[in-house]
Amino acid sequence: MDHAIPTITSPAGLVVTVSYDIYRPTPAEGNVAHNLWWWWWDAGAPTYGLQWDQAGGQTLPNGWNSGAGSAPTVFDRYANVTMVWDFTLMKAFSSYDGVVVDNGIPINGVTSLSGWTIQLGHDSATGSGAGLAYIDNFSITVVPEPRHGALCAGLCLSGIAVWRRFARRR
């Protein structure tokens, strides 16, 4: 699955979140679960994630990046994957099935974001047979840095207060 987004040419000051629910059925007898890869199309680190089921059944949302964590892979029900690239802190965060997996992996070399890929496959001829995964509720969200959001919230709240005073006078 490839998902293009309007290209973000300067992510500085943004918080970008990729979130989706994934359902992995238990592999059939004699088969192993395939690797499920996901990544940004663009250069930089960490721009990818990896659910590595063949080697120990662990999910590693930011892959082999220094400091990446893992959690047991969930089968036979939906689990949520949420990955956040905070370009205000220059760090990446992720959670899998409600468990914080990566808490502040340094971001570097990311100068643009233009699309996302999810690929089900395996690295070697393991004879593992067909693989299956269901993806639901996929979203990519881009939010300005928090201080701009706070400014907007402050202006909006000021507007509400002015409106209430006006409404009371009528």
Would you write up a description of this structure?
It is a single chain. The protein is built from one helix and eleven strands; from the N terminus they run βββββββββββα. With 170 residues, the chain is mainly beta. The longest helix is centred in the C-terminal third of the chain and has 24 residues, at 146-169. Strand 8 and strand 9 (99-106) form a beta hairpin. The radius of gyration is 20 Å and the shape is globular. The protein has a six-stranded antiparallel sheet with strand order 1-10-3-4-5-6, with no helix packed on it. Helix content is 14%, strand content 45%.
Keywords summarizing the entry:
single chain; 170 residues; mainly beta; Jelly Rolls; 6-stranded antiparallel beta sheet; 11 strands
Instruction: Write the CATH fold name.
Output: Jelly Rolls
- Given helix and strand content, the structural type is mainly beta
* Biggest sheet descriptor: 6 strands, antiparallel
The CATH class designation is Mainly Beta
| Percent helix | 10-25%
Which stretches are poorly predicted, pLDDT < 50 over at least 5 residues? 148-170
Q: Which outline best applies?
A: globular
* Overall average pLDDT: 76
How would you summarize the topology of this molecule?
Layout: E1 2-8, E2 14-23, E3 35-40, E4 48-52, E5 58-60, E6 71-72, E7 78-86, E8 91-96, E9 99-106, E10 113-121, E11 134-144, H1 146-169
Antiparallel strand pairs: 1-10, 2-7, 2-11, 3-4, 3-10, 4-5, 5-6, 7-8, 8-9
